[in-house]
UniProtKB/TrEMBL annotation:
The keyword Cell division applies. It is an enzyme of class 3 (hydrolase). Residues 1-25 have a biased composition (Basic and acidic residues). Involved in targeting and insertion of nascent membrane proteins into the cytoplasmic membrane. Acts as a receptor for the complex formed by the signal recognition particle (SRP) and the ribosome-nascent chain (RNC). One of its GO terms (molecular function) is signal recognition particle binding. GTP binds at residues 244-251, 326-330, 384-387. GO terms for biological process: cell division; SRP-dependent cotranslational protein targeting to membrane. It catalyses: GTP + H2O = GDP + phosphate + H(+). It comes from Haloferax elongans ATCC BAA-1513. This is Signal recognition particle receptor FtsY. It holds the Pfam family SRP54. GO terms for cellular component: cytoplasm; plasma membrane. Its main location: membrane. Residues 1-142 are annotated as: Disordered.
Length: 435
């Protein structure tokens, strides 16, 4: 079930993992470079300090003109410290230069001391980072990455997610996930992953998995309520009306629910509100006979609201717990379809109006759920034909788009082929956690 989408979600997980791995390697190389540069730098710095010292010395020599040309000083530390005070008198600039050069050279010596050749590359990286961090804030990102590498961890940043998230968005849209829902999922993932980077996570795969799980769960679980409890606790009879376009599986689902409620110790009566289609009575009668349930039906062309009203009266008279009201999926116009629902609402006041559509209808099912909800205020949805190969977009999107939960999945043509919709199980199925 939902295999296509499952593969795409797995692709995303791998994409981010690969990105993180590449990054870890890059950080490793960077840390190595830093260590090498650091080991070399003392020599470099003292070489650089030499000309400065010589320069200031020769200036001093030129300024004082006379005396001793011989002690053309060696570029040693002693020579520098000797010349500096003398310098201070006649040239402030030169003195400042010399002092800088001297202190730089001293720093470099200290760094050289810290970096024994035997020390580990990661230690060298850490030492280098600690030293640089104080005065080089512009390279903070680079330092953080290298430090993360030195401690064996990988940091994911927003820019790393750009490409994988783009791919994921395309995958979601191709899988019929509604645009707004896809964006919500991406936002959640971005927030989760970028937020987590500060903690420097250990396993990228695990982190991505959690982010995907939470992002999917948040949209899929919208509006969930305890359906069984709600039915058990409601005043009897409870009236459920099933709506949706033709051929999606309304009548079959009603038959499955009659079986479902029976298992819960609840009695049912079926009502054929599909007075439009020829043969509708016969079809539902067959189910009623097979399940040993009472069917209330009128002549073709009758008023659906009147049929369901009669069924409610029958249930009250015979102490039946649940009325399952079918409706026609096709009328002359969609306005007629909505007018039918409004009249049922007015005349019967059903406890729950349930929208039925096919998982395989994808984006169309999502769009219809939105329209039916606007017109008739649905209380929940049932997705049929989830056993057929579907993209999964409808299952992911409908709750978020309507604000009403998916209650059941139809998973075959048999009466027992009905599953309670469990958002957690659905997410696990999509992420392959159950296999
Ligand atoms: N594979 C599969 N087939 C299903 C499922 N639910 C319904 N069907 C099949 O879908 C077809 C249409 O089902 P119906 O229950 O007649 O659909 P309907 O919405 O009542 O159709 P109309 O009364 O014409 O509006 C039938 O062949 C059902 O067996 C399901 O969950 N899985
Ligand atoms: Mg039907």
């Amino acid at each position: 079930m939902f295999d296509g989408l499952k593969k795409k979600l797995d692709r995303f997980r791998k994409d981010v993992e690969d990105t993180a791995e590449e990054k870890a390697e890059a950080a490793a190389a960077e840390a190595d470079d830093d260590a090498v540069t650091d080991a070399e730098s003392p020599a470099d710095d003292s070489e650089a300090a030499e000309p400065a010292a010589v320069e200031s010395d020769s200036e001093e020599t030129a300024a004082s003109t006379s005396d001793t040309p011989e002690p053309a000083p060696e570029p040693s530390d002693e020579a520098q410290s000797e010349t500096t005070p003398a310098d201070a008198g006649d040239s402030g600039d030169a003195s400042a230069d010399t002092t800088d050069a001297a202190s730089e050279s001293a720093d470099a010596d200290a760094a050289a001391d810290a970096d024994e050749p035997e020390s580990l590359a990661s230690d060298a990286a850490k030492a280098a980072l600690a030293e640089q961090e104080a005065d080089d804030s512009s390279s903070a990102g680079r330092l953080k990455r290298a430090a993360a590498f030195a401690t064996g961890k990988v940091v994911i940043e927003e820019e790393d997610l750009e490409d994988p998230l783009w791919e994921l968005e395309m995958a979601l849209l191709q899988s019929d996930v509604e645009m707004q829902v896809a964006e919500e999922i991406l936002d959640t993932i971005r927030d989760k992953l970028v937020g987590e980077t500060r903690k420097q996570v250990q396993s990228t795969g695990q982190l991505v998995e959690e982010a995907l799980h939470d992002a999917l769960y948040e949209v899929i679980s919208v509006g969930q309520f305890d359906f069984d409890k709600r039915i058990q606790e409601a005043d009897k009879p409870v009236t459920l009306i099933f709506t949706g376009i033709n051929g999606v599986g309304k009548t079959t689902t009603i038959a499955k629910l009659a079986r479902y409620f029976e298992k819960q110790g609840l009695s049912t009566v079926l009502a054929n509100g599909d007075t439009y289609r020829a043969g509708a009575n016969e079809q539902i009668q067959e189910h009623a006979d097979a399940l040993d349930k009472k069917l209330i039906a009128h002549e073709q062309g009758g008023d659906p609201a009147a049929v369901i009203y009669d069924a409610v009266e029958y249930a009250e008279a015979h102490d039946i717990d649940v009325v399952l009201g079918d409706t026609a999926g096709r009328l002359h116009t969609s306005n007629d379809l909505m007018a039918q629902l409004e009249k049922i609402d007015r005349v019967v006041g059903p406890d729950l109006t349930i929208f039925v559509d096919e998982a395989v209808a994808g984006q169309d099912a999502v769009e219809r759920s939105r329209k039916f909800n606007e017109a008739a205020a649905i209380d929940g949805a049932i997705l049929t034909k989830a056993d057929a190969d579907s993209n999964g977009g409808a299952a992911i999107s409908i709750a978020y788009v309507t604000g009403k939960p998916i209650l059941f999945l139809g998973v075959g043509q048999g009466y027992d082929h009905l599953e309670r919709f469990d958002p957690e199980a659905m997410v696990e199925r999509l992420l392959g956690e159950d296999e």
